[in-house]
Amino acid sequence: MKKLTYNLIVAIIALLITQSCKKLDQSTVGYELVASKTILKIQEPDSLLVLGASANDSINWTVAPSGFSNIIKRGNAALAIFRKAGNYTVTATVNGSSPVSTTITVTDSVYQPAEPQPTHIPLTGDQIVLHANFYEHAETDSAYLYFTAITTKHYTCGNSIINYTKSLDAANHFGLTFIDVTKPADPACLPGGGAISSDIIDFRQHTGTPYLTDGTYPLTVTLNGTTYTGSITVTATSINFSWPYTAGVTITPLHINR
Question: 126-138 pLDDT, tens per residue?
């Protein structure tokens, strides 16, 4: 979070310097001190800019009352953070000329910076390999099919995840739709990126209509707007996938012994 806040501060100051250079091109006469906000919360960053001054000018910044603020200076711009509620006068003196000031009010509320949000990355150009698995508990009647989905593209965070929806209706029609990849925001993004895998273990059997009995059941998978259609044939000794695709969404193995 500290790294993110610092980068944000630097970006704001850089923008202010650019804006100032544009003002100079308009032959601004005299100096004026402006703030992005004049009413702030405690610890809320406020950007300041001396119009008419250049990044190379010598600028002395002061705040009254003193002792309750930090000023981060860069050229003719600065960023102020106030640690206590009250009214403050910020003053800038350019090259020893007459000072220019602005008044800022800090309320009793404490500023809460927004938490960085994860990024949702489309699966455009990606392909999915579905590794088929059969689980059967040795001592109970619990048994079901599940898949491990693996991307072919690589993603930067080791803890990125595949987003998907799944369905299994009463007629045992299996359905999967892949949506996108969630990349955690810094600093939650862990190193070690690469292909992403996700276990899809939610295909539990319906009590009244179990699919691990002799029969053939539809299977549809949607990726990037394309729907792939096949089937699963179950016998007492094997599970077989009828899946004609060699790209987009593939399944391996196509045969599982029970």
Answer: 999 999 999 988 6
